[in-house]
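Consider the tokenized backbone below.
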């Protein structure tokens, strides 16, 4: 075992991370914050987005997902569905969980985002919103792309988020096999049924990434999520994962201290004992609702803003563990496609009452987030003017995603109140 561990750590693609999902305590960390390629672990976020759409009523189990020529062209692993044919959303879930089908991942991305590239922007925005500060997605499947980067810590965050945010849907990850047509596909995660307490979640492999695995264990009150990245073979990866679980699960707490991962848009300003209107635009409010405390800011806005060097006094350690790293862009963002006019920070900031819905690391992400908000909350934002304003803090550059065009404080506040129904956090202030 010692020799195996030394060999793994000599591998430049290797990383491992184990966290107590009850308390947030990090039980093991080797290169957990170093950039790595996610490979098919990407599909965990694709499924997160699909589960969220189902929860919001935009998709149901029977919704048909059509295979486009683009989706059909994906490289294996795939189901091989011809372009123009369709599968149900539930079949898509099973195909992603077990077969890790790349064609299905692309089709899901197109169904939810219009295009796979736009869906990847949505995935990245969602990742940042739930605390995955070092992750950038470029596609829905995990097929090779040098700009698609994550960390073992971020993948653990996603593994916990899937359980906390979608407890009912998360059970799909325990599926052992999936029948489609005349074929039956066995889950690539061979630890299911082989290691006590393992209930998911996902494997991944490309030549660049090596063999990856995120595993969840729920056993006799203990809950642990572990990540191994960069294995040299599926067998050695699995053996190393078993070793990490054997060493660390027993260290886990049996006391569940509540959610570790803030739900994007889930903490509302109405829950917070602060006067939002009196905050300066550069301030980051720290929500302390009666239900729970989320460190380092709001799920949508502040978790994408600069992170203070030290946690606020009342912030729980478990949240700090998952969100305590400043956002980082691993590749230069491409300029946003000019779908329509978008005001950027190259012009003077808008005066008067404005609202801010997010603060993101790149202009591209801010642009995408504004467009997405306009689409999702058209009755509220359709007539307002989106713009992006840059600001620098702690040596890092960020981009505020804002809307102007409010004639008064009451209009801006009313817009923020209405945005709650669409699960957006919102800050209203006078920018004069």
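A designed sequence for it:
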């Amino acid at each position: 075992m010692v020799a195996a561990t030394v060999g793994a750590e000599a591998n430049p693609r290797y990383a491992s991370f184990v966290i107590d999902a009850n308390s947030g305590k990090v039980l093991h960390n080797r290169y957990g914050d170093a950039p790595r390629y996610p490979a098919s672990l990407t599909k965990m976020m694709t499924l997160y987005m699909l589960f969220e759409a189902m929860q919001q009523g935009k998709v149901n189990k029977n919704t048909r997902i059509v295979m486009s020529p683009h989706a059909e062209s994906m490289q294996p692993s795939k189901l091989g569905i011809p372009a123009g044919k369709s599968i149900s959303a539930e079949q898509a879930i099973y195909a992603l969980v077990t077969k890790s089908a790349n064609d299905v991942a692309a089709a899901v991305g197109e169904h939810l985002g219009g295009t796979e590239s736009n869906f990847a922007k949505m995935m990245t925005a969602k990742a940042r919103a739930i605390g995955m500060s070092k992750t950038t997605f470029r596609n829905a499947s995990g097929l090779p792309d040098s700009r698609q980067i994550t960390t073992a810590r971020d993948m653990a965050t996603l593994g916990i988020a899937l359980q906390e945010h979608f407890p009912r849907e998360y059970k799909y990850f325990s599926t052992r096999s999936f029948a489609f047509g005349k074929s039956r596909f066995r889950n690539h995660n061979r630890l299911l049924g082989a290691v006590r307490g393992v209930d998911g979640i996902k494997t991944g492999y490309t030549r660049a990434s090596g063999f990856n695995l995120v595993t969840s264990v729920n056993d006799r009150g203990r809950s642990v999520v572990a990540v191994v990245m960069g294995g040299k073979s599926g067998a050695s990866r699995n053996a190393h994962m078993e070793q990490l679980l054997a060493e660390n699960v027993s260290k886990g707490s049996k006391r569940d201290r509540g959610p570790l991962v803030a739900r994007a848009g889930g903490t509302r300003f109405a829950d917070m004992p602060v006067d939002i209107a009196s905050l300066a635009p550069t301030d980051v409010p720290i929500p302390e609702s009666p239900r729970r405390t989320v460190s380092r800011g709001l799920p949508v806005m502040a978790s994408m803003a600069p992170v203070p060097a030290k946690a606020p006094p009342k912030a729980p350690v478990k949240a700090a563990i998952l969100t305590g790293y400043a956002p980082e862009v691993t590749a230069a963002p491409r300029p946003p496609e000019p779908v329509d006019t978008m005001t950027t920070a190259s012009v003077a900031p808008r005066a008067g009452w404005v609202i801010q819905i997010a603060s993101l690391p790149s202009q591209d992400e801010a642009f995408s987030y504004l467009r997405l908000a306009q689409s999702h909350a058209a009755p509220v934002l359709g007539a307002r003017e989106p713009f992006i304003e840059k600001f620098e803090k702690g040596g890092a550059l960020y981009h505020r995603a804002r809307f102007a065009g409010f004639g008064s404080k009451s209009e801006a506040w009313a817009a923020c109140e209405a945005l709650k129904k669409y699960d957006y956090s919102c800050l209203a202030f006078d920018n004069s």
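The first strand starts at residue 15 and ends at 20.
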